[in-house]
């Protein structure tokens, strides 16, 4: 099931790349395995997937410890400062930094452990009250503040778009994040690159690719519906 699903998602990624005049290699598929058993992660691994996403620190740690070390883990959930210790040194990229307070706590843990951290700044483009993420107009200031932390490296931006029936309704959200990343890239801030744009989920990843996503985070379309609402 997982392998068939992956083949379908990859075909759709390719088609979206073609429509957008982009190369297939310019989009990284992150398989979001949150709540799903290691057995299913292994099926995706056998298929060739090496990028996985988790939104709970302890769950990511457990899977990291059990699975092959050539997997790159993406931490995509809300990160509490007391859980940074589980994520640092295990996640290749933390997608969900949305405050200076969190970035400073990551910096402190980096210094303590002798590590570095690659992060994305999460932007709440849709301005949904329930969602995490910094406001669009505050994102540049936050990037500049984080840039001063020597062990934390901003690599780009991430957003979570709302669930909508028609994925096209999220197009302006993705376009806004892309424009914001181009704006910030133009500021040439030391210790900041804007090469990564993490946007698009099961419901809207094709639209996100058309609007410039470099990383899409797809769970349900690969692993099936989750039992627990997260
Ligand atoms: C769960 C989750 C996803 C994947 O969602 P699907 O709709 O199952 O593809 C992507 N990004 C984040 C931040 C998530 O929490």
Keywords:
eight-stranded parallel β-sheet, binds pyridoxal-5'-phosphate, about 230 residues
What features would you describe in this structure?
By secondary structure, this protein is of the alpha/beta class. It is about 40% helix and about 20% strand. It is built from nine helices and eight strands. It has helices at about 1-20, 40-45, 55-65, 85, 100-115, 140-145, 170-185, 205-210, 220-225, and strands spanning about 30, 50-55, 70-75, 90-95, 115-120, 150-160, 190-200, 215-220. It has an eight-stranded parallel β-sheet. The protein starts with a helix and ends in a 7-residue tail after the last helix. The mean pLDDT is about 95. The structure holds pyridoxal-5'-phosphate.
Residue share in helices?
Answer: 25-40%
Q: Overall pLDDT, averaged?
A: 96
Number of helices: 9
Instruction: Give the low-confidence spans.
Output: none
- Biggest sheet, strands in spatial order? 7-6-5-4-3-2-1-8
Gap between N and C termini: 22 Å
SSE succession: HEHEHEHEHEHEHEHEH
Number of strands: 8
Coarse shape: globular
Approximately what portion of the residues adopt beta-strand conformation?
15-25%
Please give the radius of gyration in angstroms.
Answer: 17 Å
What ligand molecules are bound, each kind once?
A: pyridoxal-5'-phosphate
Largest beta-sheet details: 8 strands, parallel
Sheet/helix structural class: alpha/beta
Record the SSE blueprint.
Blueprint: H1 2-20, E1 28-32, H2 38-47, E2 51-54, H3 57-66, E3 72-75, H4 84-87, E4 91-97, H5 100-113, E5 117-122, H6 139-147, E6 152-158, H7 171-185, E7 192-198, H8 205-210, E8 215-218, H9 220-223
Parallel strand pairs: 1-2, 1-8, 2-3, 3-4, 4-5, 5-6, 6-7
The structure holds pyridoxal-5'-phosphate.
